[in-house]
Amino acid sequence: MALFLLLLLSVLIPSSSFAQWPPSPGYWPSSRFRSMSFYQGYRNLWGYTHQRVDQNALTIWLDSTSGSGFKSVKAFRSGYFGASIKLQPGYTAGVITAFYLSNNEAHPGFHDEVDIEFLGTTFGKPYTLQTNVYIRGSGDGKIIGREMKFHLWFDPTQDFHHYAILWSPKEIIFLVDDVPIRRYPKKSDETFPMRPMWIYGSIWDASSWATEDGKYKADYRYQPFVARYTNFKAAGCSAYSPAWCRPVSASPSWSGGLSRQQYRAMRWVQTRNMVYNYCKDSKRDHSLTPECRR
After folding, report:
1. Cα 102 from Cα 114, distance rounded (Å)
2. Is residue 113 annotated as part of the catalytic site, yes or no?
3. What percent of the chain has pLDDT over 90?
4. Contact 78, 239 (CB under 8 A)
5. Domains of the chain
6. Which of 21, 98, 211, 217 stands 20 to 30 A from 203 (CA)?
7. Is the pLDDT of residue 294 over 70?
8. Catalytic residue chosen out of the listed positions 113, 147, 190, 212
């Protein structure tokens, strides 16, 4: 009888950190945009031999010889950009799986970038999802990151989940399964990316910093390190759209912005799941990130 009660309690009482889910955002931006296959919107960029497309899903992997990356055919000046991604379980320290916007090839050393990056981890520890924004500068010795990091409320290795960036002339919204986790508003021309960007994805070795500031490195005894992408979405104003092209909205309101219900869901995530906020890092020089003081 005691054994039966113990088993019953183990079912009724959540035992993992994935037990608490955010409140409903009340609106699902991803449902507004049609999914595309990989080849409808993207092409291989590097590591062709470490990339495979089957049943509308793209698999890329990193081993001791190479990683892999891809790039959108179009450049955009605003829009909704998403993909459903499944990560590798186990030891993935030092490995970065990314989905991001950038114009690095058009403006090397002086580019803009908006990142969703999954920082690999060690056995028994969760992935860290890092969001970041660069404005006109990286690779020139003046890298100014605007990182916010989160531990997810689910295990991203067990199934596909949808990750997205909504970029408008007013704000950038990062979303996970349509739940807003971060809003980066435009407060000045100097602190907001406005030049056209392409969409990228990649898997690569970032052992020098990815896991606990480089404490744990990529261990190729566990290779290959694999990531899968599907349910690609990219909609908005391309770099060549007419001036009257209307930016997409993150909320039911066409004026943009988030609804009260979406803000409530975002506050829940930031209160419970955020593990780093660059604006609250006392070691940072905040004269370089003036948006933190406003």
Report:
1. 7
2. yes
3. 81
4. no
5. 31-289 (2.60.120.200)
6. 21
7. no
8. 113
CA distance linking residue 101 with residue 226, whole number of Å: 21
Q: Residue 105 catalytic?
A: no
Q: How far from each other are the two terminal CA atoms of the chain, in whole angstroms?
A: 61
What size, in residues, is the chain? Answer: 294
Rounded to two decimals, the pTM is 0.92
Lowest mean pLDDT among 22-36, 133-147, 151-165, 231-245: 133-147
User: What mean pLDDT, rounded, does the chain reach?
Assistant: 91
Catalytic site residue from 105, 117, 147, 212: 117
